[in-house]
């Protein structure tokens, strides 16, 4: 198997694990990109010798270019450099960029004819039909990397989508499972970053703590599998062993299970439709003993309810943009934990008043304009904020 691979966001958690898999499978690497981590990207370039590399940060890119001057790798910078890497013609482009910054590179890769291994849920949350239409037009594959969507994708193999009755997304519940809204008032960033099962970047870990990560995944599932939001259920599953389930018309339910390790869904996306040995711990059900499931607490964690509303009101771009900047404001100590949800809900309320009739279909410019409006609205609601929103990649 010699499929070339490009990784967007190679210095983040998903990117690092993807390169471990690429090494094991002897996959040639075409291009690597990151935000500003020149030192780690240099190590990756020396290990995998890609033809292209890019850093979003211009000064970091200059430093990287100096560091790898003895190698033939062409180093580029900025959003344009990342777009060029995405369009370099690899067989598969794994997009592990964080946030809406991943949308444009995804479209570049699709237009270049590459299959997409998608770990950037915001691509579909914000891009929607822009992405799915481009995938159909170019005849490429869109393969999910998120563990929940990979689980659904695997449970659908050999089945007809029309026979699906319900999709069931599982959620760990994050570090604050069982806490009331009152108990969440004074939680800190350090508290929010203590995820019980997964090792992820700060933005995604905070999203897990607020349950916005699951709201974003619900919207992504709507786009990926072309199902209505009301046919998707979310259940809290603390052990993160059952990654998601599909219920069929005959009430049979098929689940995909495994230890909570992202190498499994990453590798499946890179080797699909084949399976290869994967260097993860095998699942022992007797070791776990008991698997538990609970309904989400919509009062303490309204993010899932707001995601359904965003789908119904065609405002998923606003949902995502408002959450991204509110998450950043929390991580920089400008707002409290509960303010994240409050600001997103206020943004949805204001957008509904502003937008009037629903608009079907967007251009890329429309998406970016909606995203900017949502961020600006949130910033306007945070008094005395000096935060400048930066579209950043995983570092």
**Shape descriptor:** globular
Report mean pLDDT, rounded to a whole number. Answer: 93
Number of helices: 17
The gyration radius over C-alpha positions equals 20 Å
What letter string, H or E per element, gives the SSE order? EHEHEHEHEHEHHEHEHHHEEEHHHHHH
Strand arrangement, largest sheet? Answer: 4-3-2-1-5-6-7
Q: Total strand count, please?
A: 11
Distance between the termini: 29 Å
What share of residues are in beta strands?
Answer: 5-15%
Task: Report the helical percentage.
Answer: 40-55%
Query: Quick one: biggest sheet?
Result: 7 strands, parallel
Question: What structural class do helix, strand and pairing data support?
Answer: alpha/beta
**Poorly predicted runs:** 386-395
Question: Keywords for this structure?
Answer:
11 strands; 395 residues; disordered C terminus; 4-stranded mixed beta sheet; 7-stranded parallel beta sheet; single chain; globular; alpha/beta; 17 helices
What does this entry look like structurally?
Helix 4 runs parallel beside helix 5 (103-111). The model is unreliable at 386-395 (pLDDT under 50). The protein is built from 17 helices and eleven strands. The protein has helices at 13-25, 38-48, 58-67, 78-86, 103-111, 122-127, 129-138, 147-155, 189-192, 202-210, 212-225, 263-271, 285-288, 303-312, 316-331, 337-355, 364-381, and strands spanning 5-8, 29-34, 52-55, 74-77, 92-95, 115-118, 142-144, 164-171, 232-236, 242-248, 253-257. Helix content is 46%, strand content 14%. The protein is α/β, with parallel strands linked by helices. Helix 3 links the parallel strand 3 (52-55) and strand 4 (74-77). The strands form two sheets. It has a seven-stranded parallel sheet with strand order 4-3-2-1-5-6-7, sandwiched between helices. It starts with a strand and ends in a 14-residue tail after the last helix.
């Amino acid at each position: 198997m010699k499929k070339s691979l490009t990784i967007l966001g190679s210095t983040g958690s998903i990117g690092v694990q993807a390169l471990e898999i690429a090494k094991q499978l002897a996959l040639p690497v075409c291009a690597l990109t990151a935000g500003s981590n020149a030192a780690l990207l240099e190590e990756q370039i020396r290990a995998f010798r890609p033809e292209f590399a890019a850093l979003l940060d211009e000064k970091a890119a200059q430093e990287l270019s100096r560091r790898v001057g003895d190698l033939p790798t062409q180093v580029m910078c900025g959003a344009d450099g990342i777009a060029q890497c995405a369009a370099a013609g690899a067989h598969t482009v794994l997009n592990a960029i964080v946030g809406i910054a991943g949308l444009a590179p995804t479209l570049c890769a699709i237009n270049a004819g590459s299959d997409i291994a998608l770990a950037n849920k915001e691509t579909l949350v914000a891009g929607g039909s822009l992405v799915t239409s481009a995938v159909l037009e170019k005849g490429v594959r869109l393969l999910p990397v998120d563990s929940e969507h990979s689980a659904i994708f695997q449970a659908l193999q050999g089945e007809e989508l029309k026979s699906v009755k319900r999709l069931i997304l599982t959620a760990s519940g994050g570090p604050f499972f069982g806490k009331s809204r009152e108990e969440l008032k004074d939680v800190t960033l350090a508290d929010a970053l203590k995820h019980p099962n997964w090792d992820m970047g700060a933005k995604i870990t905070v999203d897990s703590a607020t349950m916005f990560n699951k709201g974003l995944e619900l919207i992504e599932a709507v786009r990926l599998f072309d199902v209505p939001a009301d046919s998707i259920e979310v259940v809290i599953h603390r052990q993160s062993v059952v990654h998601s389930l599909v219920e069929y018309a005959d009430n049979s339910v098929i689940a995909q299970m495994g230890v909570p390790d992202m190498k499994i869904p990453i590798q499946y996306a890179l080797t699909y439709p084949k399976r290869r040995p994967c260097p993860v711990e095998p699942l022992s059900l007797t070791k776990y003993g008991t698997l538990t499931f609970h309904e989400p607490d919509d009062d303490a964690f309204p993010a899932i309810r707001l995601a359904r509303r965003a789908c119904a009101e065609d405002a998923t771009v606003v949902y995502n943009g408002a959450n991204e900047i509110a998450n950043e404001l929390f991580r920089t100590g400008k707002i409290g934990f509960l303010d994240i949800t409050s600001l997103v809900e206020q943004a949805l309320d204001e957008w509904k008043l502003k937008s009037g009739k629903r608009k079907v279909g967007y251009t890329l410019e429309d998406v970016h304009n909606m995203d900017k409006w949502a961020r600006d609205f949130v910033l306007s609601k945070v008094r005395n904020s000096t935060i400048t929103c930066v579209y950043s990649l995983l570092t």
